[in-house]
Amino acid sequence: MTVESIIAKAVAEAISRLYGVETDPASVVPQATRKEFEGNLTIVVFPYLKASRKSPEATATEIGEWLVANEPAVEKFNVVKGFLNISINPAFWAKVLHEIAEDPDFGITRADDNSDLVMVEYSSPNTNKPLHLGHVRNNLLGYSLSRILEANGHKVVKTNIVNDRGIHICKSMLAWKKWGDGATPESTGKKGDHLIGDFYVEFDKHFKQEVKDLTGKGLSKEDAEAQSPLMLEAREMLRKWEAGDEEVRSLWKTMNNWVYEGFDETYRRLGVDFDKIYYESDTYLEGKDLVLGGIEKGIMYRKEDGSVWADLTGDGLDHKLLLRADGTSVYMTQDIGTAKLRYQDFPIDKMIYVVGNEQNYHFQVLSLLLDKLGFKWGKDLTHFSYGMVELPEGKMKSREGTVVDADDLIQQMIDSARETSADRFADMPAEEAAEVARMVGLGALKYFLLKVDPKKNMLFNPKESIDFNGNTGPFLQYTYARIQSVIRRAGGVDLNAPTSSTPNEKESTLIQKVADFPSVVKEAGKSYSPALIANYCYDLAKEYNQFYHDYSILKEEDNDKRMLRLLLSAVVARTLKTGVSLLGMEMPERM
Predict the structure, then answer these.
(1) Do the Cβ atoms of 282 and 165 come closer than 8 Å?
(2) HEC per residue, 517-555
(3) Domain check: are 422 and 536 in the same one?
(4) Among candidate residues 273, 302, 328, the one where a domain is terminated
(5) Distance (Å, rounded) from C-alpha 427 to C-alpha 496?
(6) Mean pLDDT value of segment 231-252
(7) Mean predicted confidence (pLDDT) in 66-74
């Protein structure tokens, strides 16, 4: 039982005893006392004035006096208008510390047979280009959200939908046929996703030239794009693909396999994974059948050109295209089919899509269409919408001058960590130094992208993220490594060893901060916000470093005090490691 729940229960009992009014302890919400006031927890007494029929100050004083007399956890109190500030007994904090130390799963709720199953979709790449900075934020948010939901006792299936078909894929395929000269990842020494991305750029270059030539002959830009021989060839290739043409399908399989191998390497380096991968090429026909069936039910309609649409004006939206005039599918059709297959494959209680906020309308429409098609879970889909990530100083590396390549970014972060930390790694074997640089570089990247409220757009500053001071991943990693160094020099810490020392004020504050961890994990799961975990870990590390600066640990002559501080240090380190693991970060044992 947390200290907040103990105080909430005691306050509810106080109101019952003092004023004869039954109060649900769940309605009593103790908050951390503001730093300018004395105390650990604060109770707002205004809701109880009707029961007490007294002033806020008198009501707070009466409740405070009852708590001091009847609840051993409460040492003293003070009143500021209608706010009751409660100071917890230091001996109680010592008890809390030992209970935390003895619980290896502190803050984490394990799933059981009755737990809900949540599916989280993230990544969703196209097989015509490598992953970029936007994908990095998406993958890190999706993976972290999955870890946080697991820590809240849910079963989680991490899933990915690969957009492996469509006109964009045909553009890369056509460019490879025309100008590839048989190039392969092996013959070029390039990752498969990069190689295919180059041909996508090649198509775009020739297409723009064709449009320029046609507009020079008097055509409008729109007509020039529609009549471009290259685009007409790409659309014909897409029609052949959907018709099952063996030659087109064979080339498609070969080139996509190159891309998958490249994606897998990037995912591995980034430290994310999936339990189930779906492919649009397998799901779009399911969606197509559902859409065609929707015509018979009067949910969709066909235009004279053969295209199929849904009229959503009655829902405050517009008309939505679902099948083009040539019979080919759009993303919405694929998502309808994928949703159906997922609910067939898994007994999902909740479906969460991790997709940028530019797709808010898409998921609003998807939810409506699934509901209209008779799928009861349609209205319950959740779009975890997040903001875009940009760079403050141009682009670090780009394919077309518009996107930052994920592989280049990962390598740059690791290289920066190695350069920035050269002095710290000087006494390490080369292999260990390289591994720590990898942890620090990726930790800096992950923390910087996850510490911001996911709903907000953000600027990613690589140089700022590597800083070992301030609100950064390396600062947390250094704090953890510092504690591990202290523990090694002490010869280890027995987490079950009793101590008779009573925590001082600073130690009590630090214990309270650790004790807050379960509620932070719960709130992060409720609000889908890795940022809450990230910033809690920063506050905890900052609080510990202040304690470390103010009090000696290994040189403390009082053995009980020394043992208490070592135990507190070990608990802080474990909590930090657990916390950042929910962000997908790793902690080096020394730096």
Answers:
(1) no
(2) HHHHHHHHHHHCCHHHHHHHHHHHHHHHHHHHHHCCCCC
(3) yes
(4) 273
(5) 34
(6) 95
(7) 97
Last residue of a domain, one of 228, 255, 273: 273
> Are 84 and 173 in a shared domain?
no
pTM for this predicted structure: 0.91
- 73 with 187, same domain: the answer is no
Judge if 562 and 445 occupy the same domain: yes
- pLDDT tens, 166-223? 899 999 999 999 999 999 999 999 999 999 999 999 999 999 999 999 999 999 999 9
The rounded distance, in Å, linking the Cα atoms of 306 and 400 is: 36
SS3 40: coil
How far is the first Cα of the chain from the last one, in angstroms, to the nearest whole number?
Answer: 36
- What is the reported pLDDT for 486? 97
Q: What is the DSSP string of 391-420?
A: -SSS-SSBSSSS-BBHHHHHHHHHHHHHHH
Q: What DSSP designation does 61 have?
A: H
Whole-number Å distance between alpha carbons of 320 and 318? 6
Is residue 443 assigned to a domain?
Answer: yes
**Residue that has been written with the tokens 């600027």 in this structure:** 459
Chain length of the chain: 591
Quote the radius of gyration of the chain (alpha carbons, Å): 29
Question: Using CA atoms, how far apart are residues 465 and 481, in angstroms rounded to an integer?
Answer: 18
Give the residue from 160, 191, 170 showing the smallest Cα distance to 280.
160
Q: Does 399 have pLDDT greater than 80?
A: no
Q: Which of 170, 121, 461, 407 is nearest to 275 (CA)?
A: 121
Which region, left, alpha or beta, applies to residue 316 given φ > 0 means left and ψ of -120 to 50 means alpha?
left
CB 487 within 8 A of CB 101: no
- 343 domain residue, yes or no: no
In this predicted model, what pLDDT tens digit does every residue of 358-371 receive, in sequence order?
A: 999 999 999 999 99
For residue 156, pLDDT beyond 80: yes
Q: Which two tokens stand for residue 386?
A: 């997040």
Lay out the sheet containing 31-32: strands in order across. 31-32, 41-44, 83-88, 74-80
Domain that includes residue 538, residue range: 406-581
Percent of the chain past pLDDT 90, that is, above it, reads 86
Give the chain's domain count: 3
Residue 402: per-residue pLDDT: 54
Compute CA distances 99 → 9, 92, 319, 551, whole Å. Answer: 19, 11, 59, 23
Nearest C-alpha neighbor of 385 from the set 410, 408, 366, 405: 366
**CATH code of the domain in which 14 resides:** 3.30.1360.70
Mean per-residue pLDDT, 555-574: 96
Closest CA to 129 of 188, 196, 189, 185: 196
Pairing relation of β-strands 31-32 and 83-88? unpaired
Say if residue 395's pLDDT is above 80: no
Strand partners, 32: 41
